[in-house]
């Protein structure tokens, strides 16, 4: 468990966490997830999901949660996916979501993740800004992706292999200053052009 300005983070431990995770997610995300969706992620990838607490986890309710998965994508890349992220309204803008995302990224790196993707509503400025501050880029716009009819942005983070993945010692090799071949294997993501969001419906329609 790690702490940061009296916020504690721990991995999902089992079904007893489920009601509070569901409460945190259902109060904040527009998409209506059923319990089976939560179990799909939490039972298969419990080590990728984290909860944030304001004090001793045994004596308080969680104030933030992240739920993820990780699998091979089309036999091509080891892909992490952030399915849900929510921080209690009273605890926002204190770095809690950033810390939760970093915890999950670190756990995915343990399993050799190469890219991490997620979707968020096209006008969720808090989420877009959070993920972009962590290095994610907007890869695609997905038309009417959500049940509420809103478009989504697909965001992606390319994860270069960590130094510890490189077993060969290249310190005496003059070519060691070149990018490692495994780094070059990272998919060549290109950010899409984004028209800034406007609350003015006419601006938005004319801008598309
Ligand atoms: C999005 C959300 C998870 C952010 O949680 P948070 O703990 O407040 O985020 P952090 O404090 O870690 O913010 C990190 C960065 O994100 C950006 N950010 C966060 N909230 C923001 C807001 N309301 N407006 C603009 N940028 C924001 C900022 O760049 C911030 O860095 P800064 O504090 O140095 O400016 C939270 O607002 C939330 O739960 N929203 C509802 C659920 C949701 O939208 N989930 C994401 C779905 S993909």
From TrEMBL:
Keywords: Acyltransferase, Transferase
Any one Pfam family match given in the protein's UniProt record, by short name: Acetyltransf_1
Chain intervals with Low complexity compositional bias: 169-185
Region (Disordered): 161-185
Database matches in InterPro entries: Acyl_CoA_acyltransferase (IPR016181), GNAT_dom (IPR000182), NAA30-like (IPR044542)
Listed GO MF terms: protein-N-terminal amino-acid acetyltransferase activity
Residues in N-acetyltransferase domain copies: 7-160
Gene Ontology CC: NatC complex
Top-rank taxon, per record: Eukaryota
Similarity remark: Belongs to the acetyltransferase family. MAK3 subfamily.
Protein name as it appears in the record: N-acetyltransferase domain-containing protein
């Amino acid at each position: 468990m790690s702490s940061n300005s009296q916020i504690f983070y721990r991995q999902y431990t089992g079904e007893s966490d489920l009601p509070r995770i569901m409460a945190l997610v259902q109060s904040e995300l527009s998409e209506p997830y059923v319990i089976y969706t939560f179990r799909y992620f939490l039972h298969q990838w419990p080590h990728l999901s984290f909860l944030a607490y304001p004090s001793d986890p045994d004596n308080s309710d969680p104030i933030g949660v992240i739920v993820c998965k990780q699998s091979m994508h089309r036999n091509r890349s080891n892909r992490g996916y952030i399915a849900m992220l929510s921080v209690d309204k009273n605890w926002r803008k204190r770095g809690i979501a950033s810390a939760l995302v970093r915890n999950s990224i670190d756990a995915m790196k343990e399993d050799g993740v190469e890219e991490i993707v997620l979707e968020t509503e096209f006008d969720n400025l808090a989420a877009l800004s959070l993920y972009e501050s962590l290095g994610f880029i907007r890869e695609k716009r997905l038309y009417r992706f959500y049940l509420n009819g809103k478009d989504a942005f697909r965001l992606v983070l390319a994860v270069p292999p960590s130094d510890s993945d490189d077993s060969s010692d290249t310190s005496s090799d003059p070519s060691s200053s070149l990018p490692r071949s495994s780094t070059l294997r990272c998919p060549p993501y290109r950010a899409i052009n984004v028209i800034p969001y406007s609350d003015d419906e006419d601006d938005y329609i004319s801008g598309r």
